[in-house]
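Quick question, first post here. What does this chain look like in 3D?
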Amino acid sequence: MGTDSRSILIIGGRVDTVRKARDLGLRVVNVQRPEEYRPEHAALVEGALLAEYTDWAVLGPLVTAAHQVYGFSGVATITEPGVEPAGLIADALGIRGNSHRCARLMRDKEEMRRHLAGRPDAVAAEPVTDRDSLAAFGRRHGYPFIVKPVDAAASFGVRLVEGPEAVADAWACVEALRGSTAHRFANYFPVGRFLMEEYLDGPEYSVESLSFDGRHIPLAVTEKTTHANFVESGHAMPARLAPAEEAAVLRCARELLDAVGLRHGPAHTEVKLTGRGPRVIESHGRPGGDRIMDLVEAAYGVDIEAYTVGWAAGALPALDSAPQARAAAATCFLTADPGRVVSVGGSAAALAHEGVIGVDLAVAVGDTIRPLEASWDRVGQVLATAPDTGAAVALSERVAAEISVVTEPIDPIDPIGPNEPNESHEPIGAPRRAAMAEHVLVFGNGYDIPGRLRALGAATGRPITTSVLCRPEHLAKLEAAAEHSRIVAVRADAPTEEWVALARAVHAVAPVTRIGTFGDQCQPEAAAAGRALGVPTHDPETVRLVFDKFAMRQRLAGAGVDPTPAAEVRDLAALHAFGTEHGYPCVVKPRQGTASSGVSVVRSADLAEAAFLRAGGAEAPAGVVVEAFLTGDQYSVECFSEQGDHAVVAITRKYSDPVSLVELGHVMPAPLEPADAERIRALVCAALTALRVEFGPTHTEVVLTGSGPRIIETHLRVGGDELWNMVTDATGVDLVEYQLRQCAGEEVLPDVRDLLAKGPVRHEAVWFAGAPAAGRLVEVAGAGDPQPEGVALEVLGTPGQQLDGLQSSDSRLAQARAHADTAEQALTLAREAIGRLEFVTRISAEQAELL
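> Answer (accepted):
Ran it through. Tokens below.
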């Protein structure tokens, strides 16, 4: 079909880019990388091509076919990775856009320098081939000089070679960075070739412009400040230049754009005003980053983003002349010492200052700050306006100084830092938009929670869809399976990488906005997938510590939270050695396990071998752990966390089998002295902080010893054994409801605390029937008898079930729940209900002979 003047192809970009195109009445098709596609895009586009768009072999056939359907009148991008694909598309389809030749010249710094060679204002430049080429360049053109990657961005890898003695270090840096993936845009900009350029002295500026059929309209000249390593520390406009200097800078930028053949859309051209006149550093065929677009709009009233898409599709006319400044605007960037963020403060107060138009923070408590090596290592920025440039700069710097990001040293720092700007993150103070659709990827069967999530979406007017990644054995347990958008079953022995790959496949079809884990199932895989997709979930390291009982002990001891002795034992000799050193009894358990499976109390050395084998022995996949036995009453603590802030919801008294440690009963609120309750609360909150738990419910088991409370273990879920229902009835806090609301993006901890402030509702208890030693269950007599008021009985075993004693929580055959005015009354009612049951079993002749 022919071109449609209302249809545009947008490569990459933000949701706002697409929204502005729609606001201009355009039909939008968005080409996006699958992992960067957002649910908000879906409501704004006519179509989407989710593909690796920097690969022309993939993209070319897709856009050619889409052009036959939509008839694009133009192609546009605001992102650096989209510049060359947009040029290829413009050439291939013959639609409005810059040529690929132009795009390549602006993307490839070596190509641009070669193209400009011979001009009066040309900058000496040569490719780096080896160490000798660096020394030779210095001899020919003098020191200092610049070495930088040919096609990187954000000042990454830029180095000043100050003299012959610095050549060796410069070459080492080149070798270290070649092929590096330790930066944010590794998929877009694989660092390979390097360029040497003569050093340009003088202040740095950038020219923001729009071009209309080859006519270049300057919008602003931006003055810039940088750190010693060339990472920009601030921008301000209008630049404080004498008229003749400004004219020279504008002329330099215009001549560059003519030379590379730029005809349409935005450009961001960096210039140094040297003693010999202005010289181009580099130029980009897209708007300037660092929210320069927002500064231009504040100072000059021109929306570069809207013009980028509007001009490409013919929806906006060309500007006749350069706009006049109506105010000044500036931004000051925030940095922090490398390490782990322990506190962030001052952002809300900063935004309240008159003249401040934006405050962005790219980090939160628990994030890791990398050394300042590129623009993406900055931690935020403040944008401000004022009547003149000096006042705008002063305001942005003063307000930035009021924001604190405090870190603690860590070693080593992950080479790929998490303090990366999140393009989907809304700046503080941004206007709230209408609720958008959510897509929750559930790991495991999810029980009834996915259905409750969808119901929550329907009730709040925010559509919530769910997909599932689970193991084959979970399929039969899925509730309302047909209501999920898609279900993927992963074999039980699949490596984490396969889970991540399948999560990416789901994400490519329908972008995942949330990840849900509502039990122990698949939490490590969910954490890995969340990190890969950039979707918030538990940190993989937190999950590892929670699942690995020995690693958890090490972390809590190292943090000064809990000194309980523990060791990993690979053989019986190591277990005996622990018993000799720390004494008996001790607890032996699988290093990774759930439901008390494989746990034993070893009360003397002659029982160690049986316990070691029960925990898996030398063949245990993750190993066996031995811990000091903690003497005292047992408790469990249900907490709810949000942004690293923890609220204790309920403390439960627990009763366990003295041999297997399988839990036989619970009562809440636990009958505790206030001082003991406070010590338990403090310990559990400290443990969750040490494990870097950021959100959601947790279930932590504690023993109140003579030396104070000690941790047994913790879980990133609500407690089992009906505890979540007991918590609801005892406190009014529905942990599952708050978990799913939090999963859907709501802030819920204030509501939880408001309910807790009202005090307990009633006392709740549950008691379980343990399995007989051996046999096959025939029937449970008395299960149908009437129960006293406040008692609910449930049979868990089924006729024909093989019994083998109390091996784990799954071995229990019945449970009774009761509520009453006191903890003692509730516990008595539950125990008496179990006591009235009779379990009829059948045993073999061999078993009878043994008995």
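The CA atoms of residues 385 and 391 lie 8 Å apart.
Confidence is low (pLDDT under 50) at residues 414-436.
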